[in-house]
Amino acid sequence: MGSHALAQQGGDATTAGFEYIFPAIRGVQAGREYYVSMCPLRLIPKIFLFDEDELAPEVRAQRVLNKGRVPALARYILENPDDYVFSALTASVDGAMRFVGVADQGPGLRVGQLHIPMASRFLINDGQHRRAAIEVALKENPSLGDETIAVVFFHDASLERSQQMFADLNRHAVRPARSIGVLYDHRDELSQLTRLLALKCPVFRNFVEMESSTLSARSRKLFTLSALYSAMSALLQGLKLPSGKDGERLSWGYWEAIDALIPDWGEVRRRSLSASEIRKQYLHTHGIALHAIGLLGNTLLRDSLDPEEWKPRLAPLRDVDWSRTNPDWEGRAIIGGRVSKNHQNVVLTVNYLRKQLGLELTADEQQAEDAYQRGER
């Protein structure tokens, strides 16, 4: 940051003649100059604006801030102060920018200082949730203010240009598959446990798609890592386990018990049946079934963690008709011939399994079941 005082940023009258000075690198895209700089985190909430929520979409340059995302992003910074990673912010500057290179020729032409009048308006085109999270994190840990984030500055030619920049920046943004997110997440204990089961547990080893969250028709895999993660989350939610090893032992034992009650899984491992045919004909390898089986196990494990008590209670699962042609699944797990994994379908599927095991439904589950029985699907 330059030598001019930040105290002068109150308004046009008080900021006239004052400017921000950023160390920067100059580049060119589509014939337009842009600049890349490092900005202290403490300045991010002060100088970068966000369109007000009450503005109509056609006169905003950004989408409405999803405030629900901000606490998780802020917590990510606060809980990982030594290894958090934030990508660059992209901002438009409504004001004259002046770049002064360190030399008149050669590489020095591209490296220098970017001068921006304090009266200018800074508008974030990409990174508004990161900006909001930084503001929240700084309130709890002001020492983060000395750290920096990369900022890409463009000249703000017009609202239309800013809107087009937002559209272009997000046009080709593709969220990574959830499976690869689980595969690469080394902070989340549940992700680590799910990976362990996928790679080492005999039930899943060599039959879990580790990268994609969908399976192609010819895939030799039975499950996706993301589906297994959801099932593990359902299985262990709310359980108090003394250590990570206990969670590993418990979940490993649970899925081996389930495996013994679904012989088709073993037939695929023994190459007697193909994975693609099993997925096509049966429901038990799909995410909705794994999730429901996880929820079912959670109910049993809340009563007792002793395998001698919960394993026998699972026995009726052996008699469940998992074939997709079973009319009982229509409207529960299958809608119009296609497997559906929305929340309501998960609830109705676990309801069916609870009935097989003679377990009571919760009030919410009973309400969903009553609506299903009335034909309100």
Please give a structural write-up.
- The chain is 42% helix and 16% strand.
- By secondary structure, the protein is an alpha/beta fold.
- It has 2 domains: 6-171, no CATH class; 178-373, no CATH class.
- It has an 8-stranded mixed beta sheet. Strands 9-10 form a two-stranded parallel ribbon.
- Helix 12 crosses helix 14 and helix 14 (343-357) crosses helix 15.
- The model is unreliable at 1-14 (pLDDT under 50).
Based on CA atoms alone, the radius of gyration comes out at: 28 Å
Taking pLDDT < 50 over at least 5 consecutive residues as the criterion, the unreliable ranges are 1-14
How do the strands of the widest beta sheet line up side by side?
3-7-4-8-2-1-6-5
Tally the structural domains: 2
Shape: elongated
- Percent of residues in beta strands: 15-25%
Counting DSSP H or I runs of 4 or more residues, the number of helices is: 15
N→C terminal distance:
59 Å
Largest sheet: 8 strands, mixed
Going by helix content, strand content and strand pairing, the class is alpha/beta
> Average pLDDT across residues?
86
* DSSP strand count: 12
SSE string: HEEHEHEEEEHEHHHEEHHHHHHEEHH
Proportion of residues in helical segments: 40-55%
